[in-house]
Amino acid sequence: MINVAILGYGTVGSGVFKIINENNSHISRRAGEEVRIKYVLDLRDFPGDPVENVLVHDVDVIIEDKEVDVVVEVMGGVEPAHTFVKRALESGKSVCTSNKELVAKHGAELLEIASNNNVNFFFEASVGGGIPIIRPLVECLTVDHIEEIQGIMNGTTNYILTKMEDEGADFDTVLKRAQEKGYAERNPEADIEGYDACRKIAILTSLAYERQVDFEDIYTEGITKITTDDFKYMKKIGASIKLLGMARKVDGTTYAMVSPFVIYQDNPLYNVKNVFNAILVKGDMLGDVMFYGKGAGSLPTASAVVSDVVDATKRGGASVKVYWKKEKRVLGSIDAFTTPYFVRIKGTGIEKDVLAKFGDVQYIEGDASQDETAFITPVMSGSEFEKAAEGFDIISRIRVCD
Length: 402
Description:
Elements: E1 2-7, H1 11-22, H2 24-31, E2 35-41, E3 55-56, H3 59-63, E4 68-73, H4 81-90, E5 94-97, H5 100-116, E6 121-122, H6 125-128, H7 134-140, E7 146-152, H8 155-167, H9 171-180, H10 189-192, H11 195-209, E8 211-212, E9 219-220, H12 228-237, E10 239-250, E11 253-264, E12 276-283, E13 287-294, H13 298-315, E14 325-328, E15 338-339, E16 341-346, H14 351-358, E17 362-364, E18 372-376, E19 380-381, H15 382-389, E20 394-400
């Protein structure tokens, strides 16, 4: 029998509890042993809830119980999650988590501790929720050099951009609707400013390129400056705008960022709409492969966590080798990252000035009543764009996914 302890009985924790109990025979058959929840840790009480029978308020009960084989950490945040997970691993228990903040900051350290104690630290649910992406990177795409990762990694922002595009609604209106539907938090800053996606691309970049990438070093830009006028131009060129987490290796330099990008219809991410997420991985041998599904929510995320529990059970005392060193990887400057740009500039009749500064651009016809000029630039670095933009009244600037 495999005894599981769950740290946290919130949205994801209650989902893990539900799945293990309701699908127990199926899960146990796949794991090769009976899987049982022995403890659930939470500071609160839940009168009348079945969790009452296994609820504890002291983590020491779990850490000191030698019968607990797997700990599921779904508390969120860095502390006390980091302390609890570290203690669990050091006591010989495998840990499965959905905590992107914890993994992004301490993933390499916790993987090393797990290996030293012949247990596993699994975190499939930390990036794509119910979308499998960690295990494919670690175990399936092992013969490929990863050239690039592009991902729609936040359902809230994708929902907002989808409604702005399809309905012509403005940002504030759609954000309010997303909050009413429960897609966005009361304080949506982590989503709309790109911080949530930043932690996820930090994890994927660290795994793909095998060294620690700190999320603080990743250029991050949200969606608050995107307008319905931007989408009107997109319709004219058959494109869309998505918030992407991106990692790319160019001539030995690793770049990572979160930013809105113009995406054309030949990109598989173009048709990913509403709260769905998708991650596109480009390998030097395999080519393009995309992982698609619901990136958040109680049961999709919990499903990925429980899959890790099953995997941890099947592994027994064998640790999975994960190449993620604690040594820090230095990222290339955003100023050196090259891409075309979609640009809107105040004023008309400025073609000569645009040609002199930006070169041969692709103009996009706009509304004659608007006093502006819109175009797509040639490929240029961030610093080249900033220099070219000097002297112009820039209304909008969005990178183009080339």
